[in-house]
Design goal:
Number of strands: 6
Order of helices and strands: EEEHEHEEH
Distance between the termini: 39 Å
Oligomer: single chain
Helix content: 25-40%
């Protein structure tokens, strides 16, 4: 049985009025849940599974700073998703809603996020598309 996992993140501030501490809360939901239930916040279909750091390394070059931040983010993702990757390859036995034991394969199906998070996940540079190889100078040009 395939279990599609849906993850989402959005950078958020951890402190109010003082400091600039930020993190990426990572939420996880299961794609097998009916979409009308999954889309309601009151149903609690998504749960926070981790807070990934949005570190500042003190680099003067913005590109180096962004690269270090992306590397730290992806190393944290490797730790978070490491056991899921192993279970997705080899499967793991889980109980279903009826109590039967099934061989399940949890797989990352999608990642929900705004443009900065999509660029971070796909390792796209700032001002580039996370979905194509089009540079930002050609956005809206109409060229295929």
């Amino acid at each position: 049985m395939v279990i599609p996992l849906i993850f989402g993140s959005d950078k958020t501030k951890l402190t109010n009025f003082i400091g600039d501490k930020q993190a990426y809360p990572v939420y996880m939901g299961i794609g097998n849940i009916e979409h009308t239930t999954r889309q309601k916040a009151s149903e609690r279909a998504f749960t926070c599974v981790a807070y990934l750091p949005a570190a500042k390394f003190g680099q003067k070059n913005d590109k180096v700073e962004a690269s270090l931040n992306a590397q730290a983010f992806h190393q944290c993702l490797d730790v978070l998703l490491g056991t899921i990757a192993d279970a997705g390859k080899n499967g793991m036995f889980m109980h279903d809603s009826l109590g039967d034991v099934r061989l399940c394969f949890p797989l990352v199906a999608s990642w929900i996020g705004d443009r900065p998070e999509q660029q971070l996940i796909s390792l796209a540079l700032q001002n580039t598309s996370p979905f194509t190889f089009t540079p930002y100078t050609e956005f809206g040009s109409g060229k295929p």
